[in-house]
Amino acid sequence: MHCDGGPWHVDDCELALAAALAAPAAANKATAAKRESMRFMRHLGELATIELDRRIENID
Predict the structure, then answer these.
(1) Domain span holding position 52
(2) How far apart are CA 15 and CA 12, in angstroms?
(3) Domain assignment present for 12
(4) Is residue 14 part of a domain?
(5) C-beta pairs of 28-32 under 8 Å, 24+ apart in sequence
(6) Which of 4, 8, 26, 52 could share a disulfide with 12, CB 3.0–4.6 Å?
(7) What's the superkingdom here (predicted)?
(8) Which run of H or of E encompasses 60?
(9) DSSP state string for 7-35
């Protein structure tokens, strides 16, 4: 891609550069969101296990 009067206009180059710079940040946010989602699911699993144990103890 050339911004020196080639097939790309300066605006196109600026947009491409902005997209290239934003891509890693977007990937990091997606990874962080996935990590937080997994953490939340583990927490729900722990709560469900505690509740199940409590109910089993109440049966005895």
Answers:
(1) 23-60
(2) 5
(3) no
(4) no
(5) none
(6) 8
(7) Bacteria
(8) none
(9) SS-HHHHHHHHHHHHHHHHHHHHHHHHHH
Residues 15 and 22 sit within 8 Å (Cβ to Cβ): no
Q: Which residue has the higher pLDDT, 15 or 60?
A: 15
Confidence (pLDDT) at 14:
83
CB 27 within 8 A of CB 33: no
The single residue listed with the structure tokens 């890693």 is 24
Domain count, the chain: 1
In a domain, 30, yes or no: yes
Query: In this predicted structure, what is the pLDDT of residue 6?
Result: 57
Distance of CA 6 to the CA centre of its chain: 37
Please report whether residue 33 resides in a domain.
yes
Residue 53's Cβ-side half-sphere holds a number of Cα atoms within 13 Å equal to: 6
Write out the two tokens for 48: 């469900």
pLDDT of residue 4: 57
